[in-house]
Design goal:
By secondary structure, the chain is of the alpha/beta class. It has one domain (5-235): NAD(P)-binding Rossmann-like Domain (Rossmann fold). Helices cover 35% and strands 16% of the residues. Strands 3-2-1-4-5-6-9 form a 7-stranded parallel beta sheet, with helices on both faces. Strand 4 (64-67), helix 3 (78-98) and strand 5 form a beta-alpha-beta unit. Helix 2 (52-59) packs across helix 3 and helix 3 (78-98) packs parallel to helix 5 (145-164). The longest helix is centred in the middle third of the chain and has 21 residues, at 78-98.
């Protein structure tokens, strides 16, 4: 991609991983909520993601947006997710249209379907005796208000794709963690996402050809109950890591 890419929420965990691993691959523009502790290596602005006056200077001239900004807390209250997550996502799409941006990669979350993970009423098409796959075609079933905000962000993207033709990839990000062991409970093992797989799926989402997509951002974990087949098919995503085999180091792929 020759045009700049706006990365919102650049100071968060996912944003830091993307910049560490893809920093030299794109002409980044960065949006921070507050002044970063260290001077970034890329042009940046600070401000509120829901305020067009704060966002517009970073959006101007961009060809794509990776939208990560928002309140990331699963327990976040409504008076935070409404302005930071829902209004903020609407602002990003609205300015993208105004500035002629072609593509938005949206950081959705497993919490958009959190209630489906443990509910025994989940349809058999997603659940069997020894298998469980949510593949992005299911209806959102958020388990908290943060999940409501992420499901709403996906719907906002659907509207802007249908109405204005923007390419939209919603990545339902799992549990990004580089520690060893990555997680010590079954649910965390199932939805684990390694740093290099996180960088890869965002890289592929910036380069692939698609219209509107919902994919799951997890590694190729033995115990996964999210499907990564759509991410493989549409984005060309080929995860390198597996929570069951992770020892805290990255091995070269065979």
């Amino acid at each position: 991609m020759d045009e700049p890419v706006l990365l919102t929420g650049a100071g968060g965990h996912v944003g830091q991983v993307i910049l560490e691993r893809l920093g030299d691959k794109y002409d980044w523009r960065l949006l921070y909520h507050s002044q970063p502790a260290e001077e970034p290596n890329h042009p940046y602005v600070t401000g509120e993601v829901q305020d067009p006056a704060d966002v517009r200077p970073a959006m101007e001239g961009a060809g794509a947006v990776v939208h990560l900004a928002g309140d990331p807390r699963p327990e976040a209250p409504w008076d935070s997710v409404l302005p930071n997550n829902i209004d903020g996502t609407h602002t990003i799409y609205d300015l993208a249209v105004q500035e002629g941006v072609d593509r938005v990669v949206f950081a959705s979350s497993n919490h958009a379907v959190g209630a489906a993970e443990t509910d025994k009423r989940t349809p058999d098409i997603y659940r069997s005796e020894d298998d469980f796959r949510l593949d992005g075609t299911e209806y959102p079933r958020p388990g908290n208000k943060y999940g409501i905000s992420k499901a709403t962000g996906e719907i906002i993207g659907r509207y802007y794709h249908d109405t204005y033709g923007i390419s939209v990839c919603n990545i339902r990000i799992g549990n990004l963690n580089e520690e060893y062991p990555p997680v010590d409970y079954d649910r965390g093992q199932a939805m684990w996402l390694s740093p290099r797989d996180c960088a890869q799926i965002h890289d592929r989402a910036l380069r692939a050809d698609y219209g509107f997509e919902i994919v799951y951002g997890i590694s190729d974990n033995d115990s996964k109950y999210y499907s990564i087949e759509r991410a493989r098919e549409v984005l060309g995503y080929e995860p390198q890591d597996n929570a069951a085999e992770w020892d805290g180091t990255e091995k070269l792929s065979e």
